Each structure stands twice: as C-alpha cells, then as structure tokens.
Amino acid sequence: MGKQNVVHCFAGNSQLFEGGQKVGNREIGAGVDESRPPVLHYDVHGGMPGAHILGINRMDAVGMVSDAWSHAGRTRPGECSAIGDSKVIGDFKASGKFKIIGDFKAIGNFKADRDSGNIGLSTRSSARITGMTHSTSSRKRAALASPPALPPPLAAPLAALAAVVPALLVLLAAQPVLSQQPAAAPVRQERGSLILEGIPARDTELADRLARYRQSRQATFLDWLPEGGMLIGTRFGDVEQIHRVTAPLGLREQLTFYPDPVSVARAPRTGPGFVFLKDQGGNENAQVYYYSANGHVQALTEGKGMHGDPIWSNDGRHVAFFGTERDGVSYDIYVADIGSSAAPRLVTSGQQDTWFPLDWSPDDRKLLLLKYVSINESYLYVADVYINTLTPLDDSGHKVGIQSARFAPDGRGVYFTTDEDGEFSQLRYLDPVSHEVRRLTANIPWDVEDFDVSADGRYVACVVNDDGHSRLTVLDTVQKLDLAPAGLPDGRIENVRFDRTGRRLALSAESPQSPRDVYVYDLEHNSLERWTRSEVGPVDSTAFVPAELVRYPTWDRVNGGQRMIPAFLYRPRSPGPHPVLIDIHGGPESQSRAGWNPFVQFLVNELGYAVIAPNVRGSSGYGKSFLRLDNGMLREDAVKDIGSLIVWIGVQPSFDRNRIAVMGGSYGGYMALASLAAYGDRLRGGVDEVGISNFVTFLENTSPYRRDQRRQEYGDERDPKMRAFLNRISPLSNVASIRKPLLVVAGMNDPRVPLTESEQLVWRMRGKGSEVWYLAARDEGHGFRKKANQDALLETVAMFLSRLAKN
Hints:
807 residues; alpha+beta; 10-stranded mixed sheet; 53 strands; 18% helix
C-alpha cells in the first residue's frame, strides 16, 4: 500500500498493525462480497475515496481499486487504479481511466470500455492478463504503446514492454494461456479398504511414535440398567461396542460384536434387554435393534432410511424413535411394541420436516416431540399415540431455539431448555395449563447443554457450557440447594442421567489430560465414585498439556471495542518458536471444547506444534447473536476471523509465523480450504477432512433428509443470487489461489458431505499441477471411526504436518 493510504484496523495495538496484515473491511482475503459496501471507519490516514481492496499478496494489497471498477457485473464511472502487486481473478471491467502502479495480473476476461478505457502504466508497472481481453476503443492500445516520458534509465525497458503488450493481448484474446501444466499421475496404493494417492511411503519411525498415543481408550456412559448396573461404550478391538459394568471399576463385559461401531444404547426402567443403533460402513442409515435378556438380537426396522433417538416407555413395553424410511426426507415418529412381531407403527408423519421424540408422559399415553427447523428455531408438541393427535405446547409461533425437553415426573409440566428472551439457552419449567413459566437457571450466563430430572422430581441436574468447559450443578428443589461434586476432570461432561432411585447420577467426564470415563455422583452422601478407569497408553501422562483459553482480536468491533474470538491453545513446554496448527471445528454450529484428544498431545509433545482451536463467529456456546454472525451472505466473515488469528500468531514470540498450517473437518474442511485461498502466502499447507469444496454441489448432493436443514445455515442454492454468492465463495471456484500442499481425506459412504466434494477438489488441484495427498476409505462415512483406518489417517496427517514444519 502507498504511504498516503494507510488503514489502521488495530490502531490501539501497534504490534497487531503490520503492512498487509489488515483483515477487516475488505483488506485481506479473496472473494469479497461486494453486495455489502466496505466500511473504512477505524483509522484512515490519507484514504482514497471509494477504495476497495480485494485481497492481499504477501505484504501488499491486491486489487485495490477506487471510484470506478467492475466486478461480477457491477460498474461505476470514474478513475480506477491498481496499486501494489495486484491480481483480479474472474471477469473484470474497467469503465474509466485505469491506472496500474505495480504488478498487475488479470486472470479471466478483462475489458476496458471505449473512450474512457484508458490504461496507463506507471514507471513501476508491469501488466499480465491471462484470458480473453477486449477493447471497444483504440485509445487503449495507444496508451499502452505510448507511455508518458520517462527518465533515460527507465525509458528503454518500458518502451520495450509497451511494444510487446499489444501483441500479447492479441495472442491472449485468440488463445488462453495455461499457466501450469498438469502434474504426472500420482502414485496410487490400496491397503485393504483404504485408497492412497500421491502419499509418500510410510514413515515407520514416526508411525511408531504415534502408535504409543493411539493406544489410549475411553469409556462413555450410555444408560442405567434396571438392576443397578450400566451400559457403557468402549473399545477393546477395532471399534467401539456396548459393554455391561455391574460395579465401580468392575469387569467390562462386551455385549455386541460388530465390524462397525455401536455407540448408542437405551435400556428400559423396568424389564430386560435394551435397544441400540447400528449403521454400515459409516453411511449413517442406522437401524434399531433389540437385544434381549438371552443375548438374541432382533431388528426392529427394515434396513431402509435413517433412524435414531430411541425412547423407552415407562412400562418397558414400547420404544419410540424417528425414521426416514417412508420417503427419505421426512423424520417420521414410530412406536415399536417390543413384545410383538408387528412392524413399528407410524404415530406422526414428518411431512418433510424434522421431528425428534424426547420423552414419554408418565401414563405412557403421550409423546413429547421436537420439531426442528434450525439451531435457532424449534417447536415443542405433544402427540397422543392412541388417537394420533398433535398439539403444540406454545401456539404463539415465536421462533426460538429449543435444545431439549422432558415431562415433569408428575406429568403436569415440562422442563425444557430455550434461548427465548436471551442470548443463552436456559432451563425452564412450563405449566401447560396455566402457561406459567419458571426460569430455573436465570443466574447462569451460559448455555445449559444437558439436564435430567430425578424420578421423584426432587433433583434437577444440569450441565452448563461455561466458556468451553462443562460445569455440573444439581438443584435440590426441596432444600433449595445447589450441589456440585468435587473431583471431576476439568473439561467436558456429557450424558447425565439419574438411576431409578433418583439418588445416583451417572455421567461421562474427560479433560485434555485424561480420557473420558464414567462417574457416579451419590447425592445422599455427596460423594463421587469412579466406575471406569481408561488407559492413556504407554506414554507419560504428566507430559500432557492443558487447554489454555485465549482470546484474540478480530477484524470488526462490537459494543464499542474490538471483537474478541475465543480459542483453546495447546502450547508445547519446550522453548519456541514453534510451528503452529490452526485446527478448525465443523458444524458450523459446533464448538471446540476442552476435551481429550491424544493426537493433539502427540503433535505438541512429539512434533513440537502449538495447536490452536478457534471458535470463530458462528460457533455455538457464546450466545445466539454470535451464532448467527456467519449465516448466509455473512459466510466469509468467519474466514476473516482466521485471517485475524494468523495476524495474532505472527506477533507471538513463542510461535513461528513462517510455519503455520491449517486443518479442519466437514465445515472446518471448508474453512481450511477458504483460508488457504485467502491467506495462502501466510500458510505452509492444509488438511481438508470430509470438507465442503463447493456449497452448491454440496447442497444439491447431500442426503435429502438434511438438505433443508443445511439451507437454513448456508443459504438456498435454488435462489439465483444466493447461488452466485455460494459459487463465488466456494474453494472450488478459488482453486487458482490455493498454491500450498494439501491433504484431502474422504469417506466414500459419507451421507453428509458426499465423496464428490473431495474428488472434484483433488481433480482441479492436480489439473493445475499442485501437490495433493489424497486418502479415501471405502468403509467410512463422515469421518473415520475404525481404529485401523484412524491409525492410517493420523499417520498420514502426522507425516504431512512433519514435512510442512521442516520445509
């Protein structure tokens, strides 16, 4: 940028202000949404009126134009200047005087209009136009052929350039130029169900070091058994299966034995057996099975469609669940009679909407249902399973987010969590008759993410997401006390559930330094008892690093100050500067949490990486306003949060700003790719695991039962304006800007992000000669779940990141 055009986006912090590292207001990043005009309102010194900055290239602005410019069909009259190392990708139309100061490159169709189409080269300029070039005026060629008078040392080279450019323009107009030749076909290997392309030979020494961390195991609480034992999920072989544990730290008795993982099981309060869900090869078309007391397994569904959320009736005779088998789109509600061979009965037709069963009424006559539209909009209904009526609990039609609900033990009211009238999801009690609503957690400024109620209604347990850490509180409604067990790992708590007596609460808990295990909180004795003790593997657990909560300033402002983005940092204990891995979560309505991840510990302790997991705008856990900041046309704003993180990393003395990599899965894969396109000159490379490469093809090809849900978040690709926007911001449309090594991972049975999203990206990247490692699994879906496949995946990622850190 010129000295007279300095924009301080971080004027309050001189360390964060560097040339070319300004993130907000269109100053950094590719594919700017010009439907929203830029605002240069922080500290602008000598600013050029109407300045538009399209991106960055190394330390200079790329494509800065003023007053007159055209991009994606928009044109304004006036003077248009390209200052610095400038590049325009796509159709570009100059309708006015166009001045080049610095290196200019146009990739696409470049057009300068008639009389005003005057292109001038400064003394420091060079022009390179790749694609079709048009002019409706001879003045353009005259201007190129006759530059202004120059000092003798510069006149000769500029004259030579001016003489060559017209011929080049004619040649380029006649025949497009290929800037890169496709690379040779990559080496392809097949190892069982795995396909590896362009991936170097296995690094056995690195794999052996990783294997020590991969021996860790976890245990997840699934449900109480009527006799007092419990069902847990854990892995002794290749995948997680259901086990029975009857006493604290007792034997883990394996009950299911399948090649695919089984991680969901529900037991009745009375009666034998339990139900569980199982899919095949990661296709997520889970079926419902009943495991009887003698170990016999009976399929309750026919193998078509997806099923989930099994809920037992109080008498142990019926199971309600949702299924999509009827039309492949609607989440219908079914009830199966366990003692009968009859097919499950359709109770509520989904009518192409998404419905979930939540609870049975105490008399087993009614079902509490949730109609889910988006994370910001849900509705509660009560269905009578005998006369097939459906009644809304609230007929006001207010759009609010409801996460969970259950009947009160006496059947009179309903407990539910909602973000109505506030930023966070709070636990409330509703009396449907009087319509009275009581707020039970009004004093907690965070989301209540899980809860349960004891059988007699005395205790209400709730888990609060406190800035990414879980906090458990048990409300004693009789003595008006808040109880909290001591000794739980400081990290994440899930699956809280009271036993039949209502005096014992089971849960799963983990931390960055300890694997997930099962604990039981005895409320009468206020004591915590550990039921499982999982192994960390043959590694020194004292070397595990904690998750350090940090916040960094991003590109925009809120409440009169710089917006701060939370992130979890895993910092090596050895001296720096360290290479950095930015690990971006999926969702996008998800959140990086302080949980157990042995691979992160491996990266920190063995490869010396600092790992930072940001919760960019659009993440859950920080209020519904923050959650909505990336919806629809705001999608690129989340990518700019990564640009701000790169700036923040650059001024940390313990980090190496020249060795930064980015990684993400699912939506996080899109974010990794978009970051490589926008900030590739600041990144060494990236890992895209089952990520979205083009939003339009993703929405058109994702499973029908989830397509409308995703349109609520990303936008409707059937709308022409939204379709154009989604195409423009998609990594596949910006492959030319992705120049660093890339590892792409795909599950071939993925029902969420189809295999084609990875394949089309790999094909395009290789077509332009880029380095791409590609790993696919025939027996996996949206992520790898089988240990053998996970081992191969993480070995590949470790080898890829190790090379990036060394180069």
